[in-house]
Amino acid sequence: MSRNQSSSTDKTMSTWQLASLITSTLIGVGVLTLPRTSTERLAEQGWMAPLAGGGIALAATLLIAWLSRRYPGLTFIQYSEVIWGSRKSRWLGKLISLPWVLLYLAHLYIGTAITSRLFGEVVVTAVLRETPIEAIIITMFCLALFLCLHDVEVVSRVNELLFLLILFPVLIIGLLSFQKADWNQILPLFSASFPDVFKGAVETAFTYQGYEVMLIFFAFAQPVARKSQAGFIGIAVAIGVYTLITMSGIAVFGVDEMQKLTWPTLEIVKTTQMPGLVLERLESAFLGVWVAAVFTTISNTYYAFNLGLRQFFGRGMVFQRIMSLLLMFPLFYLALIPQNIVQIFRVSRMSGYIGLVVGLGLPLLYLAVSLMRRQGNRVKEKGKVAR
Amino acid sequence: MSKARCWIALLLALSLLLGGCWDRRELEERTSVLGMGIDLAKGKPNLLKVTVQIPIPIKIAGSGGQTGGKGGGSPVRVMSSTGHTVLEAISNLQKRLNQKIFIGHARVVAVSEEVARRGLREITDGFRRDPEMRRLLWPIVVKKDAAHLLKVKPKLEQIPIVYIMDMIESGTKTGSIPDQTLGNFYIQDSSRTMQPYLNYMVTHNDEIIWKGVAVFREDKMVGVLPELQTWVLNQLRDNKTGGDIVIAVPGKKGAYITVRPHFVRTKLKLEQAGNQTGSLQARYVCRLQCDLLEATFPLDFKDNGIIHKYEQIIRQEMEKRAAKLINMLQKDFKSDILKLGLAIHGHHYRDYWVSHNWVEEFPRFPISVQYDVHIRRIGMKMK
Q1: pTM for this predicted structure
Q2: Across the beta sheet with B108-112, what order do the strands follow?
């Protein structure tokens, strides 16, 4: 069948590609609000929220990598029916795994919509003020659609290529903004209690959303690629970026001012001056590059969704191409459902919590079942025989 | 081959469609406001009068070839309008202009003292929401009429606002004028641990004079700190040098000495006051390295103790100025613009900050300032 084919011929992702895939999926539109959301509960200690939240994301990614090692070459959709079913009746496995798979796919789909809407909102409020938000969302969708027409290999290459482009602006902005930092703003170091740090970490969930695409993409790793290592690097880079941005936000603005800013990271960019005044207004340049970061987030998620959908129905590449085009239309309307910016923030926070269930809960559940049924190795042998 | 070429040609043609901008607005299609002044409307206390300064590109020398600058008349237009809010006044102004007003290029926002005393939060709200507004512009408080500041013609620069801007910028570079941008004002206004302040200017005929800073409590102006105290504030708060120190030497008539600080390092020490636990006191130790610029009486450096003697004189004078600063802030203004609260919040959170209300505590908080003055160089003249 076509699904077996696709999973055995496309094992092209190297460790580095996997890592950059994770980082660039994670870093997206969430960074623009992260300094505000993470200081909301923790105040001066806000920079700990992305650190602790990153810990959760890291644990989840390592679980996903472990799961993928037990079923090499199979995606979440494919090993779902193996885990829940028996060798005789595959349809039973498919039936039991149906709610989980559907939850996962729906989460990816909605996540794409929310991210693209948030991106559109930023662009419309800050740069292109007269442009209809629909135009921005559609343009972004066209890019994502274009990626979906190609093989997985293209996805990994695009991410590898854009990785540095995403990373450098954030790092440069973060470091440049330290010129205006007042380090007393970040003190006292330990004012919040431990449960508060944990709650704050959970609240950063939306920013860390995205690692769950690895439930799909780990299947395409080269046999020699080290998935846990890739997961570790990918998440660690994102943690570094997030903590840096939050820290510089607190040090530059202080906690009280940050609560008043809708897009704190954008304001950091605005107050940051390049030494020598090469570019006086950095924010347009920053947002220009930022498109790349959001593009990888949206298109990776949408790609994972379409790939999952195609495997769920056991179809090939043509099915993916057609479906990614057709499903673009409901996605567009989905993105436009929230009526105002406050509602979007609420929805994105909810989506972050659901993301925790999907990204952490599902792998835990699957691993537990898989370990209890002592599967893993059996499938590996079976895979060899089948090939 | 030809088919491929067709495709390429088609793609290139399509890219022409992609190059456009949705909300394109040419530079000359908008009226850039360089400076803005906000006053209370005369006779109508609940109306604001907003005055804007708009450059006239064709009258600016150098831009319009030979005809530019020659035509006479001012290179800027100053217009005023009133409204209940700043934005209403601006939209009233829009009714009288041919192009769309663009305030993203504003570099100076002047506010009259009257308005500042009523509070600035309602005025800055619109600025905060506007993504085009720079956080790096200079807000200033003007003693009487903010509109007058925009009408003043300093003559040294074509565009008056550029003159004011340069004045503040060069002042912040030398350390005599505090670096108070709009963004800094926002931060200090929002913070629980400090109070905001803004540069204070006085207009007089065709002159614009910097006269220290306007001190705020919350968002309301409460008083003016004169130049000498502002320089001490710069030294204590930001390690900036402040202006030249001119001192009348005690005991000698008509004897003055001028020194210029070129290096300042202030350490803030928070210590336990007395033997009472839970009480704090702040001690600023300011190390000042200066150059001798001028002395109106003979100085003989062969005398070993002479430098030390004048260092002591300067030290006493600076400590006197600092004591006045602290006294004004604590007694008159009750406003912590020193960022002392921030340091206490950061370093004594559990043992002090949580149990005290800083806003109430500041006026009676023990603060002392110590100077440590060094004269390093005496210039080109030895005797």
Answers
A1: 0.86
A2: B76-83, B48-55, B35-40, B108-112, B138-142, B197-204, B207-217, B220-225
